[in-house]
Structure formats: structure tokens, C-alpha cells
Design goal:
By secondary structure, the chain is an alpha+beta fold. The protein contains 3 helices and 8 strands, in the order ββααββββββα. The chain has a single domain, classed as Yope Regulator, Chain: A, CATH 3.30.1460. Bound molecules: zinc ion.
């Protein structure tokens, strides 16, 4: 574990490849409509249901991490743009705005506008992404 002396963030190994500017979740939430704020909090709590998660606010997105990053959310004016690293074998879905191979995983993006979209399918994806980000055995 390496802790950046400038911003205090923790990394697996020493890296200069990050911005030392520090943001908070509130920075992301303060300028969006209340419904979107609630949707984000529901999304976050659904992810945390998978197990211990660390949440980091970057400039343009909020990143969810276990041993490695497995999901991220950007708050847009009218929706959440979420991304996740799923198993490479994940079937294509019309819900994906984009999907592309990322090593042996699949990097997918999708939009969330309504709480109803936090359904069983999405929760299953969250769990798969979480499981994939487990520490190496
Ligand atoms: Zn730093």
C-alpha cells in the first residue's frame, strides 16, 4: 500500500498517474436534481449490499473499489451514467450503452434514470462485478 504524500489517497503501489485534487461525493450531488441524488444513493447502497466497498470521488466520476475498481458513476443532468467491469462471458444487453472487452472482462456502460432500473438483473451484474474485483487468492 502506498499513500500519496500530497493528497493522502491510497494506492496499491507508488503512482504519479492521478490528480491530487480531492473531491467529495457531495461535490457531485450538490448540483443535481433531488430525484437523481436519491437515485445515486440507492445505486450506492445496492453496490454496498455486495460487501465492503470503498467509494472515491474523482473530478468527473465516483469510483467504487474492492481490491480493484469495479464500477463507476458519473452524474449527468438527467441521469446516472454507470460503468462496470463484468465477466467477459456476459451476454449482450440492450441496456448497455456501450460494451467493450477489457482484458478478460467486459467494460459496460449504461444509463439509470429511474429507481425501477435498479432491478434484479442490475443487482446481479453488481454482484458479478464485485466478485471479479476480489483479492487474488
Ligand atoms: Zn496524490
Amino acid at each position: 500500500m502506498w499513500i500519496c504524500p500530497r493528497c493522502g489517497r491510497q494506492f496499491k503501489q507508488e503512482t504519479r498517474e492521478h490528480s491530487c485534487e480531492v473531491y467529495t461525493i457531495e461535490d457531485h450531488l450538490k448540483s443535481v436534481p433531488e430525484e437523481l441524488r436519491r437515485l445515486y444513493l440507492d445505486f450506492e447502497s445496492a453496490l454496498k449490499h455486495c460487501g465492503p466497498v470503498s467509494v472515491t470521488a474523482l473530478k468527473s466520476m465516483i469510483v467504487f473499489r474492492r481490491e480493484s475498481n469495479f464500477a463507476a458513476v458519473a452524474l449527468r443532468r438527467d441521469r446516472l451514467r454507470a460503468s462496470m467491469l463484468l465477466p467477459g462471458s456476459t451476454p449482450a444487453s440492450l441496456r448497455f450503452v456501450s460494451s467493450k472487452p477489457y482484458g478478460r472482462k467486459l467494460h459496460v456502460e449504461f444509463d439509470l434514470r429511474d429507481k425501477d432500473e435498479l432491478d434484479d438483473e442490475l443487482r446481479a451484474w453488481m454482484q458479478q462485478a464485485y466478485d471479479l474485483a476480489a483479492p487474488a487468492a
